[in-house]
Amino acid sequence: MDGRTLPPTKLLVDTGALLALAMRRDRHHAAAVRFLKSLPHARFVLTDLVLAELATRLRARAGATKAVALVRDLLNSRRYEVVFVDRALLDSALGKMERFDDKPLSLPDCAGFALMDQLGLDTAFAFDTDFRDCGYRILPPA
Residue 115 in 3-state DSSP? Predict the structure, then answer.
């Protein structure tokens, strides 16, 4: 953040950012923690597809106990809002996947793009440059 503009108060959060926060050995861990601390009033939104991806990847790296605990923490958090993908959001996500067929996007990423559009958000807490490549801002800056 360059100090000239106020950061958004609500951002989409991507799986990679959540993994970075959870895993001390992740290469983005320090940057993720610094970023989160720099925005104490920010709120984050994610889809249940991101939650599923997070649980699967964290279970593989750190075990089921840690994965389940983090998912439960996110579901119970006031700082994180989980949006469950309905048919309309899924259709929009599939449309994004078709639109960006030249990029290797996951369905959770496309659902995130669709949710951002639905909520009028332009910024994600992410380390995945696919967000930027598809026209969205990412924080912290890559």
Answer: helix
Alpha-carbon span 96 to 42, nearest angstrom:
26
Contacting residues for 67 by C-beta, under 8 A, at least 6 apart: 54, 55, 56, 58, 59
CA distances from 49 to 40, 53, 83 (A): 25, 6, 9
Q: What count of residues does the chain have?
A: 142
Beta bridge partners of 11: 44
DSSP character for 57?
H
Residue 1's pLDDT is what? 45
Pairing of strands 123-125, 10-13: parallel
**pTM of the full predicted structure?**
0.90
Radius of gyration, alpha carbons of the chain: 14
pLDDT digit string (tens) for 16-37?
999 999 999 999 999 999 999 9
